[in-house]
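Exercise 7. Predict the structure of Bulb-type lectin domain-containing protein from Castanea mollissima.
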Amino acid sequence: MASLLFFIFLTAIITTEAQRGESIVNLGSSLTPTSKSSWQSQSGFYAFGFYQQANGYAVGVFFAGIPEKTVVWTANRDKPPALASVTLNFTSDGRLIMQSAQGIDTAIADPPERAASASMLDSGNFVLYNSDKKIIWQSFESPTNTLLQGQRLTVGNELFSSVSVSDQSTGIFRLKMQTDGNLVQYPVQTTDVAEYAYWASGTDGKGSNVSLCLDDDGRLYLLNSTGTILKNLTQGGYPTKDVVYFMRIDVDGIFRLFSHNLDKNGNFSVIWSSSNNKCDPKGLCGLNGFCTMNDQDANCLCLPDFASVIEGNWSSGCERNFTAESCKSKDGSMKYIMKAVPNTVWEDDSFSSLTILTKDDCEAACLKDCNCEAATYRDGVCRKQKLPLRFGRRVLGDVNNIAFIKVAISTSTINKIEPLGREKYSRKDIMILGISLSAFGLIMSVISAIAIYKNRVRAYRRVSNSGNVDLSMDVSLRSFTYSDLEKMTNGFKEELEEAILEEWAYSCFEALELDKLVSDQDVDKRQLERILKVGLWCILDEPSLRPSMKKVLLMLEGTVDIPIPPSPTSFLSTV
Ligand SMILES: *[C@@H]1O[C@H](CO)[C@@H](O)[C@H](O)[C@H]1NC(C)=O
Ligand SMILES: *[C@@H]1O[C@H](CO)[C@@H](O)[C@H](O)[C@H]1NC(C)=O
Ligand SMILES: *[C@@H]1O[C@H](CO)[C@@H](O)[C@H](O)[C@H]1NC(C)=O
Ligand SMILES: *[C@@H]1O[C@H](CO)[C@@H](O)[C@H](O)[C@H]1NC(C)=O
Ligand SMILES: *[C@@H]1O[C@H](CO)[C@@H](O)[C@H](O)[C@H]1NC(C)=O
Ligand SMILES: *[C@@H]1O[C@H](CO)[C@@H](O)[C@H](O)[C@H]1NC(C)=O
Ligand SMILES: *[C@@H]1O[C@H](CO)[C@@H](O)[C@H](O)[C@H]1NC(C)=O
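Solution. The predicted structure, encoded as tokens:
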């Protein structure tokens, strides 16, 4: 009889608990990763307990009712995973602790008083009660990266992204509910200032105690302390039956509202996201890397001549594969050039800012300053930077932003890469050629001279007879001096049909018939092609298209690639 009464009594208790949607966990209960590993909510949709993390186990709350065991909360997320031999004890004196086989205790929750019971609620909130059944601790108050329906991100608190989908430890992005009423996204390890922000709700100044809330119908909004909605991030009104909604700041730094159907074939779908540009989150690419959009996806690239620190790990950033310039010891075997990274923006941490007219001047200013490792140029302002550069991203359509990076080329490499044929062109020769040619826009004259030579016009005999220049020596282009050219072209006043010659030179170049230019003379074709290409660039009618002096020099010595020049006539027609 007594046992029957007890049974009825017990059934009554269970029924009441069931009606309240609760499954109570009593003191003295325990979990282990390998046997009973979790306590489920009444609905069975959420569970609190062990889940697999890396090569061990972590404790948290996760979706239990669906195949994807998505984790929504983790205890001590930055502690190393536990071994299979640990036990989670809800001790008889009301502490919730994880005990290792060696007897080391780790607290899972830190309530202000001893707990009397615990519960995994159907809302996804894991709570501890005192003996008066008052909640003394809840997982909802210390969110990690996710907000569930009914959960709030209260003032001063933040969500942190995870390292990866399978590693719940703290990643590199955060979402903060600020005391100025603004909800803002930043990279981790930055102060809360606008220059580091990459998303904001724009509700600053709307109150000092604002919360981010998620309602059952999928409405995500900002609420002030007297209950006024300041802003709806999503309008809500989504179906509430058999669907669950949650908001998460994802590994990639974007926060999204997800829905999931509770039926077996249900899946996750993104209802809303804070940004559609995956390059928005600052720092996605680590130091010295920059983000580019590749279709809908973000991709990280390294600065020129830099390589990933850890292959495949974007946040590890990039490092240079050469020795940095030193102001103290000049390493003679190293030479530095500037490489352009167009259409990119970076954090401005410049040590010097110059108002300079052109990109080329900016490039040159950094090149000659041994302290300058990179420069950013925009709208006539040149900013000299030290490495590392961070928060880099490519901004397409904004051609005003350009970065220049100082990279080393060892002088021995130049000779290896660019064998210059039978004759070695000394830097001085190239310099003289480069300067004289670009200074006077005279590459045309070289072409003319070649043409004259080819056609055996009088100029050839005159110069040759004078004995100043021995044109019978092959590959002699480089040894033309300014005065030689002057003589050959009769003080540049020779009535040459320039335009026709230009076109002829270009068509020879286009048709790869360089030999025509020099007739049957035995010349270094590559060097000739180089000179011709530079020449064609220098004679363009549009001055802004002509390369700078320095560029000409670099082009001639083969340090930089020479793009295919446009036809000299094509620009005339567009002007
Ligand atoms: C923790 O649980 C294990 C297994 O139930 C038990 O052996 C151990 O004594 C418990 N420790 C405490 C402090 O309650
Ligand atoms: C909440 O917003 C309403 C409407 O803007 C405003 O009247 C009220 O003072 C605000 N409450 C607080 C505490 O700022
Ligand atoms: C903020 O407002 C909530 C009510 O929405 C209140 O419970 C809480 O105490 C307030 N916090 C602060 C720091 O004023
Ligand atoms: C937010 O959405 C709710 C429900 O749709 C609506 O009642 C409220 O007026 C909206 N508030 C704002 C500020 O848009
Ligand atoms: C997920 O569910 C939505 C709506 O239920 C559906 O449109 C979508 O195709 C599903 N996606 C996948 C990958 O099954
Ligand atoms: C650095 O890497 C780039 C590209 O991979 C290469 O062209 C360059 O020669 C390398 N520089 C050094 C000093 O190794
Ligand atoms: C990437 O590298 C950083 C160190 O630079 C490390 O902290 C992080 O855990 C790595 N991420 C992954 C997914 O391995």
